[in-house]
Specification:
five-stranded mixed sheet; globular; binds copper (II) ion; six-stranded mixed sheet; alpha+beta; 2 domains; 20 strands; 32% strand; 392 residues; Immunoglobulin-like
């Protein structure tokens, strides 16, 4: 299987949608290591846990993949934000030489070709964004899917050095408000292998945005993995978001979740779905621990290619959905929440088109293991399924 996937590691022209036969064939094979294989695992697990189960313990591996992906990128990605400060001298000099405003935030981002494990033992020949410098902090450059989550405050001047170390022309196209020349979408804005380009803009409006390559063919450059999350926190004059609670390890309960999919046999359809790339990652012992009754904030973005929509559904609870993150909820201020509730959906399922984003805010009133997943059952069964472990 792996050899078969590797044999497709070079770029191939985007094909029109297949008749679906190849996808069904693939699922018959691939499913044996994911969903179908799980029934065997679950069966033996239930028996092994039988005595404990009667004591109300939870058999943790009823669903998911057999084995684990190597590394912990999805775990780190979930909680990692980069604020690009302070700005190094060479970036300040560059801005001065171009007569640009003095930057408040600086990133150096590289595009790199890199194989990424998207399910245990299944690698995908990705095109990735990696962070080389965050402000004046040097980082070990390693591209990943999604790319790093960039975070700043509304009104800050952002400066980005982009270096294309990949094998194809790429760009970084940011969602937000900016000038034409930094939009990274037109052929004259493509950055060829070995070249670099500097993007600069003022961060606006506040909200939950994304960035992605806008080279052509666009669907190919996106689904290969060139995308990431861009969070602009509101200027305090509009109010501040209620601080998220902390989990039992003292970590802030703010989570970045990128809904994505992977076309592993290049037939124009996804064979694997996930949140943050690795199928079924946050299951079993890797369920996301959250603390009961403390605010959980999820930055939810959909980048899934080939399918018109994706969705997020949480079990046994409801949440507020703040579309594009461009409004502010004030937990604890009941009068303000009541007055402004028309601005927010209160639901247990939210549906997003490709490129749409929503901030989810919620609290869990009960302990236990709570599933969340795409409410397209097929996506859930092909990897986009995960758990919160709610603790006292
Ligand atoms: Cu690209």
């Amino acid at each position: 299987m792996k050899a078969f996937l590797k044999s497709n590691s070079q770029i191939v022209p985007a094909k029109p949608c297949s008749d679906g036969n190849s996808r069904r064939r693939f699922m018959r094979i691939f499913g044996s290591s994911l969903v179908l294989g799980v029934s065997g695992l679950a069966f033996s697990n239930v028996h092994a846990d039988h005595g404990a189960a009667s004591n109300n313990s939870i058999p943790k591996k009823l669903m998911g993949a057999v084995g684990h992906v190597k590394g912990d990128y999805p775990e780190n990605f979930l909680r990692s934000f980069y604020n690009g400060q302070p700005v190094p001298a060479d970036a300040l000099r560059k801005a001065q030489s171009e007569s640009w405003p003095k930057p408040d935030v600086f990133y150096e981002i590289h595009a790199l070709d890199r194989d990424i494990e998207i399910a245990p033992g299944v690698t995908f020949p990705g095109w990735t964004f990696g962070l080389k410098r965050d402000g004046d902090r040097e980082l070990p450059l390693q591209g990943n899917i999604p790319g790093p989550t960039l975070r700043c405050r509304e009104g800050q001047e952002i400066l980005i050095k982009f270096v294309n170390q990949g094998s194809h022309p790429h760009t970084i196209h940011f969602h937000g408000i900016h000038e034409y020349e930094f939009d990274g979408a037109m052929p004259e804005q493509f950055v060829f292998p070995g070249q670099e380009f500097w993007y600069r803009f003022k961060a606006e409006p506040y909200g939950l945005h994304l960035y992605h390559c806008h080279s052509s063919p666009l669907k190919h450059h996106i689904h290969k993995g060139l995308y990431g999350v861009f969070i602009v926190d509101p200027d305090p004059r509009w109010g501040t978001r209620t601080p998220a609670g902390k989990d039992s390890k003292g970590r802030i309960q703010e989570y970045v979740m990128m809904m994505n999919g992977f076309d592993t046999n290049f037939d124009g359809e996804n064979e694997v779905y996930s949140v943050n790339t690795a199928a079924f990652y946050y299951t079993g012992d890797r369920a996301i621990p959250v603390r009961k009754n403390e605010l959980v904030r999820i930055y939810l973005v959909n980048i899934t290619e080939f399918d018109p929509i994706n969705s997020f559904h949480v079990h046994a609870n409801f949440f507020y959905a703040i579309r594009t993150g461009t409004r502010i909820m004030t937990w604890g201020d009941e009068a303000h929440m009541e007055k402004n509730k028309h601005q927010f959906e209160f639901t247990d399922t939210v549906m997003l088109c490709q490129g749409e984003r929503t901030i989810i805010e919620m609290k869990f009133p009960h302990e236990g293991m709570y599933m969340f997943h795409a409410h397209q059952s097929e996506f859930a069964e092909l990897g986009w399924m995960a758990f919160f472990m709610v603790e006292a």
